[in-house]
Inverse folding.
């Protein structure tokens, strides 16, 4: 019994000791490998930099062993997001010659979601026209995160040819994509995609027209005012109407005033009335102040507050009328007082104040 | 020989800028953070500094402010090289005393042209 105890203690001590030895050896080997890899990475980075500054030819890079060439590809991919101009062109031609871009296109169809996401990000960073079609087909991917990344990467690519696919993605209920991400992507594509965007106004669903209205407002071109007025007056979708009203405020063309005024009427939904109030304030026509402030009498407190805030942004005329409204027996006189108090609090002060 | 101090925490960018400028005949001091950049600037008095904005310890903006306060270094031209491309970021950089502002991704050729232009104005 005693002997068995001694033997077990001995075996336990030996196994602990052996485990310690194995851990130490493992750590030592790992540190060595990491140090070697870091040193080699630095060497590869120098080679890449020489290649990008045209001090090293493509043929000189062929001497890389297979194991190192994959590490070199990784560093090159990381460099894609950091350079532009001639250096990026060199890098992209190199990746094309290595077949890395074709491999990434193949990876967009891989089973693993992460692999598909990485491939999309890579294609977005490469920024060549060949990446557009595979990225567009990813808009119908079964995973939402892949579709979202594809939208982002199409925006990064910035090709106007992608606009119809992005607009179709917004409407696709079977493969939904985040509205805001599509908005950012279309914004990045910019005015070069405007014609395709405007063509989308006559087809498709409400979400598509809503995103177009938002983009037209962000772009802020007065030539889009008639299209937006038409959306505001005739579109069956409430969301499109609200976004059109806001866009018209952003553009600031007085041509929109009559349509926006009509949206203030009591038979309109409250949200549309609130947004139209803000849009009229953004246009800033003094003659609209009395009409905006008449909403202080409205039973909806949110609308009354929005009207007071809108008037407070309309310069001396707005403030004058607001002061009158604050001392009147309007139902929303308290909102007028609140807006005036906020203005006073926001006013710049001197040290003496 | 004209000395240029480059500070960036991204080794790829540090290496690229270092190589491009060295290749054009400049002596380059490459450092990975703002704190070392300040120490090296005080020691070597470079003719120009290229600073990343988001760096450990001291940001490029902090280093610029420190350099502008230092009587020996206050006239050193500074180019900020950063991924921050918003209008207010540029304003902040110039308000801190930067001579020029470049956004990432950047073109090494363009950076060299800007360096030559800035040095041409100041030397």
């Amino acid at each position: 019994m005693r002997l068995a105890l001694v033997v077990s203690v001995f075996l336990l001590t030996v196994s602990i000791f052996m485990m310690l030895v194995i851990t130490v050896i493992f750590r030592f080997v790992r540190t060595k490998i990491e140090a070697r890899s870091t040193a080699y990475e630095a060497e590869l980075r120098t080679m890449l930099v020489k290649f990008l500054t045209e001090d090293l030819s493509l043929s000189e890079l062929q001497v890389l062993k297979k194991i190192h060439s994959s590490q070199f590809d990784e560093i090159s991919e990381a460099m894609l997001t950091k350079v532009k101009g001639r250096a990026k062109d060199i890098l992209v031609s190199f990746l094309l010659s290595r077949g890395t871009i074709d491999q990434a296109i193949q990876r967009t169809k891989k089973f693993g979601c992460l692999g598909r996401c990485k491939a999309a990000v890579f294609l977005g960073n490469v920024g060549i026209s060949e990446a557009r079609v595979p990225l567009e087909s990813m808009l119908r991917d079964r995973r939402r995160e892949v579709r979202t990344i594809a939208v982002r990467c199409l925006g990064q690519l910035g090709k106007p040819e992608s606009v119809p696919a992005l607009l179709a993605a917004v409407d696709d209920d079977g493969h939904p994509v985040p509205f805001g991400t599509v908005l950012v992507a279309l914004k990045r594509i910019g005015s070069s995609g405007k014609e395709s965007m405007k063509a989308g106004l006559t087809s498709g669903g409400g979400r598509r027209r809503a995103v177009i209205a938002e983009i037209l407002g962000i772009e802020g071109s007065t030539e889009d005012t008639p299209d937006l007025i038409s959306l505001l007056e005739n579109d069956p979708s409430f969301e499109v109407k609200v976004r059109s009203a806001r866009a018209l405020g952003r553009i600031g063309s007085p041509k929109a005033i009559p349509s926006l005024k009509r949206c203030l009427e009591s038979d309109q939904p409250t949200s549309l009335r609130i947004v139209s109030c803000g849009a009229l304030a953004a246009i800033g026509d003094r003659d609209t102040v009395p009409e905006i402030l008449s909403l202080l009498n409205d039973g909806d407190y949110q609308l009354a507050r929005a009207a007071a805030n809108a008037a407070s942004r309309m310069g001396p005329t707005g403030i004058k009328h607001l002061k009158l409204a604050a001392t009147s027996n309007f139902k929303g006189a308290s909102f007028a007082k609140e807006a005036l108090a906020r203005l006073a609090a926001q006013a710049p002060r001197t040290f003496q104040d | 020989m004209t000395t240029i101090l480059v500070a960036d925490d991204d080794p790829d960018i540090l290496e690229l800028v270092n190589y491009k400028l060295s290749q054009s005949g400049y002596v380059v001091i490459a450092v990975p953070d703002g704190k070392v950049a300040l120490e090296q600037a005080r020691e070597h008095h470079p003719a120009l500094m290229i600073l990343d904005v988001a760096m450990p310890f001291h940001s490029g903006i902090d280093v610029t402010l420190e350099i502008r306060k230092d009587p020996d270094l206050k006239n050193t031209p500074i180019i900020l090289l950063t991924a921050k491309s918003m209008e207010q970021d540029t304003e902040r950089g110039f308000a801190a005393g930067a001579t020029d502002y470049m956004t990432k991704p950047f073109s090494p050729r363009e950076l060299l042209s800007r360096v030559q232009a800035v040095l041409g104005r100041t030397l």
Chain A has a mean pLDDT of 89. Chain A touches chain B at residues 42, 45-46, 49-50, 52-53, 55, 75, 78-79, 81-88 (CB under 8 Å). Residues 257 and 280 of chain A are 7 Å apart (CA to CA).
